[in-house]
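SEQUENCE-TO-STRUCTURE ENTRY
===========================

Backbone structure tokens: a row of integers, each naming the local backbone shape at its residue.

Task: work out the structure tokens from the sequence, keeping to the layout shown below.
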Amino acid sequence: MAFGLATSYPSIVLLGALAAVTFAIAHFPFIDRLVPAVVPYARAAGTACLIASAATMFAFGYRVADGRDQIEQLKSDLARAEYFEDVSRKTAEEADKLKQEADKRASDAEGKLSDYESKFGKNPADPPAGVLEWMRSLQQHPQRRADASANPQQRGVVARLRALGAKRQ
């Protein structure tokens, strides 16, 4: 924070102005005649001029180098953003291509379905007799299947309730 403030443009301008004023006091003799109060400081002004000039050059050089570093960082960020944009664009193109292929397959399937419906009709084929009962028996528990196969004449809820009542007695 403090180094950023020291290398800011207003600070560099102030250091430059200080270097110019101290240079004028140290090297121009007519300043002594215009402002006699600065005569005792003429020798110190030469040293202050060197220090202020060195500080100005250092701050300006650091600012330029920092600007170059920021430019390199921005270039890197821009290259990364362009890379991700390119990847996103390619992904979108691939997704569009896959969607078109899926739409084509769906339209082919719809065409085959309409051909089938025109050839065989829209009504599904009815299952053969006994298939539904056989499917339901497969879904029952193994114990119930064993009971059903032992007593084929007892089916339904009423028959099961009678069988449970007979077992309890």
